[in-house]
Amino acid sequence: MTFGKCLLAAVAGLATAQAWAQEFPSRPITLVVPFAPGGLADQVGRVLATQMEKTLHQPIVVTNRPGAGGAIGTAAVARAPADGHTLLISLTSHLILPEAERMQGKKPTYELAQFQPVARITYEPTVLMGAMRPEDATVDKIVARARAKPGSVSYSSTGYFANAHVGVDGFAQAAGIQLLHVPYQGGSQALMAVAGGQVDLSTGGPATAATFAKSGKVKALAILGTDRLPSMPDVPTLKELGYDSTYYVWSGLFAPAGTPPAVMAALRASVRAAANDADFKHNLERMEATLAYQDGPEFGGFLKEEGKRLHAVVGKMNAPATP
Predict the structure, then answer these.
(1) 34, 56, 82, 251: which has the fewest Cβ within 10 Å?
(2) In the prediction, which pLDDT does 97 show?
(3) For the residues 131-146, what does the mean pLDDT come to?
(4) Checking DSSP bridges between strand 291-295 and strand 29-33, what pairing results, if any?
(5) SS3 of residue 107 by DSSP
(6) CA 165 to CA 173: how far, in whole Å?
(7) Which of 14, 9, 26, 12 is closest to 266 using CA atoms?
(8) Distance (Å, whole) CA 94 – CA 315
(9) For a pLDDT cut of 70, what percent of the chain falls above it?
(10) Please, which residues bridge with residue 156 across strands?
(11) Is the N-terminal amide bond of 25 cis, ω within 30° of 0?
């Protein structure tokens, strides 16, 4: 290609980028939450949408598309036009599901390469919770019971490879024990199973764990993070107890792969403005969610490292193969 042609191509590319920047967004944006209403992704997505509308000057319509642990709604965004008008807010399980489906002999519903990270919004450890039984008052007692009779200690989750499933299984791997996994259809059912004594363990976010613990229905046993939580200063981390296991739940915003750089820049700037907005921070605090903003490139690096760690845990898990 001659210098003249290269120059023309560069000018054409710049003109296209400027056109995208000037025209975006040209209509309302759809923000897909791949989970049922009321959960962390839904709550964070709605307050984020409200803030981003202020800088993008277009309505952002939050749409819940639950199913298959989040895979249905996620795949819908992967197939959407890469123009920034369809976005995804997802959680830690975003990294897990494709690998989990491969383990089950299935073609993944979506691939991570089909998305570009816009920003991470929240990041917090989960809490291991137990039923109110004297024989299960500590993590060490639970581990001893599980070692004495493998499979005698049960735990609930919202399904195979959901956050509680991977988080508790990671703890079991670190402790060298075998636990019985009991999946439920929703987070409230999974936690009520612990409160009602139908199962022995589960995990939840800090706000949920604190609420259940204060009610006297469950006991907060350990933090699946590197540090104790200010809201539960007396609850040790698993690492303090000698079990090298952590599990954090983050929420993040994604666009389909191939979204023009100018559009990505506009989206990143909008989230950055939201993260620095006092009202947004206050709304997250009311939800007891922890703001842990990362811009797209930094978030992308985090996802690579987090994916490696989680895939190592998932690769050791046992789940029934499905047709």
Answers:
(1) 82
(2) 94
(3) 93
(4) unpaired
(5) coil
(6) 12
(7) 26
(8) 16
(9) 92
(10) 182
(11) yes
- Say yes or no to pLDDT of 322 above 50: no
H/E element holding 128? strand 127-131
Q: Are 92 and 126 within 8 A, CB to CB?
A: no
Are the C-beta atoms of 41 and 90 separated by less than 8 Å?
yes
Q: Does residue 186 or residue 153 have the better pLDDT?
A: 153
Whole-model pTM above 0.90?
no
**Topology given in CATH for the domain delimited by 127-223:** D-Maltodextrin-Binding Protein; domain 2 (3.40.190)
Q: How many CA atoms lie within 13 A of 214 on its CB side?
A: 8
Homologous superfamily of 28-123+248-314: Bordetella uptake gene, domain 1 (3.40.190.150)
Q: What is the DSSP string of 227-266?
A: S-BTTBTTSPBTTTTT-----EEEEEEEEETT--HHHHHH
What is the three-class DSSP state of 272? helix
> Which residue, among 260, 129, 120, has the nearest Cα to 199 in the 3D structure?
129
**Unique residue bearing structure tokens 């605090």:** 285
Query: Residue 212: its pLDDT value, please?
Result: 87
Q: Which residues pair with 203 in a beta bridge?
A: 128
Structural domain boundaries of the chain? 28-123+248-314, 127-223
Q: How far apart are CA 210 and CA 204, in angstroms?
A: 9
The type of residue at 97 is L
Is residue 256 within 8 Å of residue 114, measured between CB atoms?
yes
Alpha helices in 64-176 (DSSP H): 71-79, 93-103, 139-148, 163-175
pLDDT tens digits, one per residue of 61-84: 999 999 888 999 999 999 999 999
